[in-house]
Each structure stands twice: as C-alpha cells, then as structure tokens.
TrEMBL record:
Residue span, Glycosyltransferase 2-like domain: 14-122, 150-266
Keyword field contains Signal: no
Entry superkingdom: Bacteria
GO terms, molecular function: glycosyltransferase activity
TM segment ranges: 238-268
Protein's UniProt name: Glycosyltransferase family 2 protein
Alphabetical keyword list: Glycosyltransferase, Membrane, Transferase, Transmembrane, Transmembrane helix
Residue ranges of coiled coil: none
Family under the similarity heading: Belongs to the glycosyltransferase 2 family.
Keyword Cell membrane listed: no
C-alpha cells in the first residue's frame, strides 16, 4: 500500500543561522525538502545544498513575493519522481518543532476532507523587545476549524493544485488569501493544539515594525478587495483611527481646542481598553501598556499601506513587497 509522502518548502533570503536551523528541522523527517531563495548574499544556497536540499533561485528580474516563492517550491517538488501527497510550508526564519511534522501528517491522513493543518507558532526570544512580545501575542490563536492561518502550514497536494496555489500578486496576507480560496473550494482547515514552529523575529527597532505594519495595511486592502468582507473590521478601524480622527484633531487645532481634546480622549480610552484586554491575557501591566500604545499607533502605518495598495491598483503598478528586514 502506498504510504503518503511528505515534502517541505522553505523560503527565505539572508536568514543565516535561522535558515540552517529551519532546514535541519525538516530534512530528518521529510522525504524531500526544497529551499527557495530570493536573492541571498550569504551562504544560504551552499548550506542548503550541503544538506541535500533542492534549491530554487528566483528570477530577480521579477518582484519577489512569498506567494511566488512558495509556488516555485511546490512546483519543484512536483517535478520530482513520485511527488509528495502533502507539503509543509515554512518561512526560513522558523524552526519546526520536533513532532509537529508527524502530528500534522497523521491528521491529514486521517481526514480526507482536510486541505490544510497548522499549529501554534512561538517566538524564540519573546522578551528581547516589545516587538517580539507583540509577535508572540499575535501567534497564539484558538485551535479547531479555522478560516485562515499564517504561512507555516501543511497542505494536501491535491487541494493546493485544485485552487492553483498562492496568488503571486498578493504581497501581504497571501496566506489569508490562499486559505479563503481553499475554504471556498470545500476543503476544511484546522489548527491543531500543538506547537508547530519557533519564529525568530529579531526585531529590535521602530523602523522595521513601522514598515511591517505598513505591509499589514497593504494586505488588509488587497485581500479585502479580493475577498469581501474579509478584513472589513480591520479596514474600518484604520479609516477611523488612522485617518478620520487625525483629520478631526488637526481641524480642532484650527477651530477649537475642545475638538482636539475630545479626539485625544478617544485615543486614550482606546489605549486603556486595549491594555486592559492584554492584561487579561497575563501580560504584566508595563508590557500591556507598551503593546497597547503600539497597537493604537499601528493604524497610521496601516493607513499608509492601504493607500499604497489603492495607488498601485489605480495606476496599474507592480505589487512589490514592502521590505522590513
């Protein structure tokens, strides 16, 4: 009887030791591993080949996107003799937890309706910075049947092929967009209550956070346009807290200080409410206040990202990635 095979696709650029840990966590279990490189200048390619990993170097004349890289890795796996029935996708800055690959594979084997399984991602150094700590909070989502998940996922080959893989024009939230089409095609998506990957954000300054948050806004707009009403609530918050209230604040500076004061009070209440919600998730008071401040501020770079998407769409410009590393 045919034993379903498992392949893996890792994507990255200049990930250094993080990529080495990623590939080592895959090669011991997966039948085949592909590394897709987006123009690294370090020793990523040489190291991957030294492990017997198949390497794909993306054409640098075209815009890099995670979606394009994952598709290229999948096609390389499918070009092999006896391609795998299931594929684990993982970002090159993540190490796969021991036991996850076997657990995900068993779940997919047991339920033919399942198109995708995922698990929990955790930060390696959540206390290294407030930015890492925010990632840690964002990664932990409820287990069970889901509509969307992040890019670390194990997918049934048949399901991937049926929907045509990832959309290479989507530069952010491409995983959401992929999952939404998978669900619309009738497949079930499930998050298992198990640790799947360890992520190393290594984010220590404000500028990368700002750019990454801009990228999130671009995803809200682009994927929301493709799959309404997805991200509707996120977009509404951005329009209100990122555009409307700042405009009222500036108008108040010209007309009446009471108007500006009212806006500042709204921001203050939002900050306090967010901090209280974070405290209920066992954060210290100081960390909850800091994270709430960044979450309140995030609507501004979200707005810039959304406006960038609308401008690109209007003039027909390429959907290029927003670099933050």
């Amino acid at each position: 009887m045919h034993e379903p095979a498992l392949g893996a696709v890792a994507i990255g650029r200049n990930e250094g030791d993080r990529l080495k840990a990623c590939l080592r966590s895959l090669t011991s279990v997966c039948d085949r591993v592909v590394y897709v490189d987006s123009g690294s200048s370090d020793d990523s390619l040489e190291f991957a080949r030294s492990l017997g990993v198949l390497v794909v170097e993306l054409d640098q004349s075209q815009p890099f996107t995670a979606a394009r890289a994952r598709n290229a890795g999948f096609e390389r796996l499918m070009a092999e003799t006896d391609p795998p029935d299931f594929v684990q996708f993982v970002d090159g800055d993540c190490r796969v937890e021991a036991g996850w690959l076997e657990a995900g594979l068993a779940e997919l084997r047991a339920d033919a309706r399942l198109g995708l399984v995922t698990g929990w991602r955790s930060e390696i150094h959540p206390q290294a910075s407030v930015y890492n700590a925010m990632f840690q909070m964002d990664w932990h989502r409820p287990a069970g049947e889901i509509r969307t998940c992040g890019g670390d996922m194990m997918v049934r080959t048949k399901a991937f092929r049926e929907i045509g893989g990832f959309n290479p024009r989507v530069i952010a939230a491409e995983d959401d967009e992929f999952c939404l089409r998978l669900g619309k095609a009738g497949w079930t998506l499930r998050r298992l209550p198990a640790l799947m990957t360890w992520h190393d954000a290594d984010m220590k300054s404000f500028a990368p956070w700002w750019k990454r948050t801009m990228r999130d806004g671009h995803g809200f707009a682009q994927v929301g346009q493709m799959h309404p009403p997805h991200f509707r609530r996120e977009r509404l918050r951005v329009w209100v807290y990122g555009l409307l209230l700042p405009l009222i604040l500036m108008a108040g500076l010209l007309l009446t200080p009471w108007l500006s004061l009212a806006v500042l009070m709204i921001y203050g209440l939002s900050w306090l409410r967010t901090a209280a919600n974070l405290r209920r998730r066992d954060l210290t008071t100081g960390m909850a206040i800091r994270q709430a401040g960044f979450l309140t501020l995030s609507k501004i770079p979200n707005l810039f990202g959304m406006l960038m998407y609308y401008r690109r769409r209007l003039i027909g410009d390429d959907m290029k990635i927003i670099e933050y590393k």
